[in-house]
Design brief:
The protein is mainly α. It has 16 helices and no strands. Helix 3 crosses helix 10 and helix 10 packs antiparallel against helix 15. It is globular, with a radius of gyration of 23 Å. It is found in: Membrane.
């Protein structure tokens, strides 16, 4: 009697979205480590006038990742919108299944690059295929939509936090083992091939799971399905109500500015950080790169614990400012890192979840070029710059948070009256 119940429970769990989250994150962390190390190897012989050999390698690597990451962010825009619209019409699995196919193709692309010693620029084509499948821009909203549909209104926040926690734990485990797997090789399989095969198999298993096992679960007491859209819309027979001029618009503009400044700082710094740790004086090995990525994944765990412990004690604004202060201080500390232990002292304050992917269109080339221009006199200058932008982003949030409760109540009453 116990065994059938366990089997039924296991089958029920397998039909949920959580196994897909774990498998995808495990495969992605393995791939990220492999890509960084393959690019480092292919750029080892790069030469540029007036630059040392190591600085030439750094320039070649940052140029590659600048182009690669811009493609990753640009290519999915239209496909992600189309998949979102398809999901809104009832095909809830489409934004998950199609991007996972792109994940498989891009991982296969890097495996072929390593096996056949193809130019690393082939990965630009793999990035295009990944983007045309919708990429992460389509995959993650699709995952969150299914998680939301399968929960009640009262339990939804807990479900979302569980999803974030699983995502972070999977990333932590995958990152810790990625460097060790990269170093495994046999006479017939060179260095890195085993790691990429495991990554490809994880994504292939994830794709098959999403096609054959994943269930779109509808909880009866949730909000009506017509309100659960990836692309919000207003029925034709409903008048569009615009917020009266002056009500909260200043807050919206300032928070938007804060978000752009913060994401510009975080995104730009993190893009460079993966390359920075490979140069002297750190000169990280494969295992150290994996450990460093694992440190980044701890943000999901620390943010989860932070919300649980402090949300009853301090306001949301204070939670945001604490996070921004931690990043500003941590990334500034990174400017002067000369040893691995110093890196981990900085990362305990640094990593926060990234958002606003469109900001990457600005910060990726900006931080890349600044890093290349300062390689010879102050390679850590980009991290100082990121710290400054973070502090600037805190200013509008502080202004919004300091507005009196009476003013916020007054705005709310005016809005309610006019609606």
């Amino acid at each position: 009697m116990v065994l059938p119940n366990l089997c039924q429970t296991a089958f029920t769990v397998l039909r949920q979205v959580e196994p897909i989250i774990v498998l995808e994150m495990l495969g992605s962390t393995l791939f990220d480590t492999a890509l960084a190390l393959v690019v480092k190897d292919r750029c080892a012989n790069a030469t540029y006038p007036d630059l040392s050999r190591e600085d030439s390698q750094q320039k070649a690597m940052t140029d590659f990742f600048m182009a690669y990451n811009l493609i990753i962010r640009l290519a999915p825009i239209i496909p992600a919108l189309l998949l979102a619209k398809l999901s809104d019409r009832g095909r809830r699995k489409a934004p998950i299944v199609v991007p996972l196919g792109g994940y498989v193709l891009s991982r296969l692309g890097l495996l072929l690059v390593v096996i056949f010693r193809l130019p690393v620029e082939v990965m630009f084509g793999a990035a295009v295929l990944f983007g045309l499948s919708g990429g992460f821009c389509a995959y993650w909203p699709g995952v969150m939509t299914l998680a939301s549909l399968g929960s009640t209104a009262t339990d939804r926040s807990k479900v979302m936090m569980r999803v974030e926690l699983l995502y972070g734990l999977a990333g932590l485990v995958g990152s810790l083992v990625s460097g060790h797997l990269f170093l495994l090789y046999t006479a017939s399989l060179g260095e890195g091939i085993i790691l990429l095969i495991v990554s490809l198999l994880l994504h292939l298993l994830c794709l098959l799971h999403s096609i054959f096992l994943l269930q779109v679960k509808h909880v009866s007491d949730r909000e009506p399905e017509e309100n659960c859209h990836l692309l919000s819309h207003t029925p034709d027979n409903t008048a569009v109500v615009e917020a009266p001029a002056g009500i909260n618009m200043v807050n919206v503009v300032m928070l938007f500015m804060a978000a752009i400044l913060y994401d510009f700082a975080v995104g730009g710094a993190i893009e460079i950080l993966g390359v920075f740790v490979m140069k002297e004086p750190l000169s990280w090995s494969a295992t150290q790169i994996g450990y460093g990525n694992a440190a980044g994944c701890t943000i999901f765990l620390t943010s989860f614990l932070g919300v649980i412990l402090f949300r009853r004690c301090i306001s949301d604004v204070m939670l945001i400012l604490i996070g921004m202060i931690s990043f500003a201080s941590g990334i500034y500390f990174m400017s002067f890192v000369t040893a691995t232990y110093m890196f981990y002292l900085g990362t305990t304050l640094t990593f926060l979840q990234l958002a606003l992917k469109f900001a990457g269109l600005a910060y990726i080339p900006a931080f890349t070029k600044i890093y290349q221009r300062t390689l010879d006199w102050f390679p850590g200058f980009v991290f100082t710059l990121a710290s400054i932008f973070t502090v600037l982003g805190m200013i509008p949030i502080s202004i919004v948070g300091c507005r009196s409760p009476q003013r916020r109540q007054k705005d709310s009453e005016r809005l309610t009256h006019q609606l």
